[in-house]
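Course assignment 3, question 2. Fill in each field.
Student: A.L.
Task: Predict the tertiary structure for the chain below.
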Amino acid sequence: MMNNKPILGITMGDPSGIGPEIAVKALCLKKIYEICHPLLIGDARVIEKTVKEAVKRHDMTIHAVSSVNECKFVYGTIDVYDLRNVEIEKLRIGAVDAMSGHAAFTSVIKGIELAMAGEIDAIVTNPVNKEALNLAGHRFAGHTEIFAVYTGTKQYAMMLAEGTFRVVHVSTHVSLREACDKVKKERVLQVIELAHTTCQRLGIAEPKIAVAGLNPHAGENGLFGREEIDEIIPAIEAAATKGIHVEGPIPPDTVFAKARGGLFDMVVAMYHDQGHIPFKVLGFQYDKSAEKWQDIKGVNITLGLPIIRSSVDHGTAFDLAWQGVANESSLVSAIEYGVMLAVNKVVPC
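Answer field:
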């Protein structure tokens, strides 16, 4: 923390996608510098090219650094922890590329190193492409798994947040068949506890947690599956004995509407798409008449880590890359969420 403002490391993301553009657009907003000291982590030449060619803000200057102490943290100057991890003449815009995947990966790793060393107060990540990561030899399903491995975290969960609408997942980047197999009492209980603790650390004294069922109608008393009876209900009962206000299993087709209406502070979803689909229907708004995304909102937080990590909740959008049309709303929200957690010294675990 410097001058009561947290230092946020913002990763470049996949340079073939929209990450560099939305990063620059976010740092063209004075309000970001009013709440934090932002530091981009990636390749300074990519950021400079982005400023000139995609965003076209010639009033913004790039300041390449090799340590946090060299940063200026002043509006109008974008500090970049320069990893020189892109051969700029070989950069393929809007394409899955191993070099770009490796650049995105090394930017994340540097951010983790800086956060673990206490040199930055939180990490905010821009989108990576899973195929590009794997082409580069980094066998990870996504950011969440990278952070878990490189921080030595065994128990973690993905949370999505937009305003008061929050979802946390029992499983994420696995097949649907495997996701069903992962619905076990111990894991469901663990995620309920993570949800409860996180809400409390966000200032909700007595959070109300909803637990979604896995099956249609939450199993209909065993008619459509026994996971609710054998695994989910025992987890809910165990959580209740610990003083957690938890309800469920609630049918998946109604629980999110109830949460949006304010009946719950967090929903525990059983698998990736069960939580992501309603969340993105709420946060992503497409303007058909203008043929563009009006708004892309939503923040991804990894619970259980020893460091603070927030992220955009969208992909690399290769079809929009380097055209100056990418929407930075989700990144701005992720920065604001990272600031809130850092200022309150909240490690969401």
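Instructor remarks: The radius of gyration is 20 Å. Residues 157-279 form a domain with the Isopropylmalate Dehydrogenase fold (CATH 3.40.718.10).
Grade: pending
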